[in-house]
């Protein structure tokens, strides 16, 4: 999992769907959390013509800067290539979050994600790609198949993931996280949990590897040790 180091400027990009394009949704809340640590601006792509970005929403005052390019669109598919990708991501990002699946086509989503990842590799080869595993839509079983397809694709590609679905499934307040049947089915609590999960994944210290266990000695090892330590006979 790539981390956004707190001691240097960084650029984060989000390629997502309607679950992440609102000013009250999790991407902006992630920006607000980062604003507690550093000067952050979140720029959302224009929803009407996709030709540019709205004025940034700013958080925090302290260096170093973090820029978040939020290229999430209502009804978007994870298939952004060529010139369109350059327009969506006008600056080289350190980390790109792919956040799709809840309303995707389960039969097409893997191929679409592959094309986008290939385009990212060509345009911004240093960018680290991370897959956001979205929670299923409440009371909509049809959302589970494409979400599984996204998870399987991430595993097959060997990409790091941020498991928001698991955070929702294990949250004590899970009944209050979503409101079925609404245009924006996440509640304020759901948006906050999604943001906290993403922020924690991008800022938590890397785990310290456990000490490597000493392998049991082989017969040859025992023999060499015995020869080296044997005392001369008297």
TrEMBL record:
Record's compositionally biased regions (Pro residues): 206-218
Annotated segments matching region Disordered: 205-234
SUPFAM superfamilies: SGNH hydrolase
InterPro entries: SGNH_hydro_sf
Low complexity: compositionally biased ranges: 219-234
Gene3D superfamilies named in the record: SGNH hydrolase (3.40.50.1110)
Protein name as annotated: SGNH hydrolase-type esterase domain-containing protein
Organism, as annotated: Arsenicicoccus bolidensis
